[in-house]
Amino acid sequence: MALDHAILVSLLERPGSGYELARRFERSIGYFWTATHQQIYRVLRRMEAEGLLDVREVAQRGRPDKKEYSVAAPGRAALSRWLHEPIEPESLRHELAVKIRGAAFDEPAALVGEVERHRRVHADRLAHYLAGQERDFTGPGAPPTDPGRELQHVVLRGGIAYERMTLDWLDDVLATLHRLAAGLPPA
Amino acid sequence: MALDHAILVSLLERPGSGYELARRFERSIGYFWTATHQQIYRVLRRMEAEGLLDVREVAQRGRPDKKEYSVAAPGRAALSRWLHEPIEPESLRHELAVKIRGAAFDEPAALVGEVERHRRVHADRLAHYLAGQERDFTGPGAPPTDPGRELQHVVLRGGIAYERMTLDWLDDVLATLHRLAAGLPPA
DNA sequence: CTTGCCTATGCAACGAGTTGCATAGCACCA
DNA sequence: TGGTGCTATGCAACTCGTTGCATAGGCAAG
Fold first, then answer.
1. Which of A32, A125, A141, B159 has the fewest CB atoms within 10 Å around its CB?
2. Nearest residue to nucleotide D20 when comparing alpha carbons to its C1'?
3. Domain final residue pick, A83, A110, A143
4. Are residues A99 and A175 in the same domain?
5. Which pairing describes strands B66-71 and B53-58: parallel, antiparallel, or unpaired?
6. Position B117 in a domain
7. Is residue A35 part of a domain?
8. pTM, two decimal places
9. Is residue B76 in a domain?
């Protein structure tokens, strides 16, 4: 049910439509929680039926009308309750790691291109996060801090640390693959 | 379908029963891919029906019989095919990060205990990984390396790097929460 | 002027993953 | 001898998440 709570947090930070939420899940929130628009629309309707959200039809010029959702009092209470419950420490789902172990039963060198591709994606994400940090937190035009923004920033710092760690690890993986291809002993 | 491939890799590394696989998914393989015994049994039956796996009934003394699965030729071919296909770079599902951003709408200090609990879990995982590394790879009793073990080791190094990064980040989170509780300005 | 893209929402079907429960023999401890 | 726990497998029901498709108006480029 964590999608419910991610939506509550996002709507508390700023009310919006399903479509807008879907785009947020491709950026900021999506850095640590993903969802497709299908899931979002379905959950929004359910949460509205449960009284956790309010809806407001908003007519727009030049584009289709939208339904703007915001958090109702029971939704805020539900979030608060969840914040006081313990959650399971996350477990990874790292498909590339499965591939790397699987490469032992195939040609390890064939993975080099794939690992390099992943490395580029992570380098892009890191650049994107760093730009966001500069824009929203550390740059000259950034607004003054408040508790909410402090917490957003520490989460972003986590994303940055994750991407840096991943880049270092992928370099380690590439070095290992090249060593194996050359038939050399471990470093 | 990544569970299929994780199972193929694990069974190639060593044949075993559903029960044994379930325990591996609580340790080594489970460091980067999780699965419950339910899922494993179901997938094993399906893969056997598809001809990807062979089964052998093994009678045991003092314990129930088991079905030992091993990878059949078509299974190996399927793994090889998958290794040559690109996969999506992973996206995170980090519930704790949702909580941290949500704390802005509640009492941030109330999260301290939860974050400390997660920190302990990650410290335990790191100690566990380091012990495994010492036992299987870097210690005096470790067997000589071969390509398969080299690849297992680089994946384990990734797990170690992940846990270290996470510990550092959780320290950052705790410092941030304490700063907010004290009403102090950002560092 | 038409092809393609963006905003905006939704249905239907499927596949992946979780939770609760059930069974059953053996071992170990009090 | 009775409770607890481990090995070993499985069913049923459910929720979560993905994929493919559909609609519909407006906008911009060619």
1. A141
2. A38
3. A83
4. yes
5. antiparallel
6. yes
7. yes
8. 0.94
9. yes
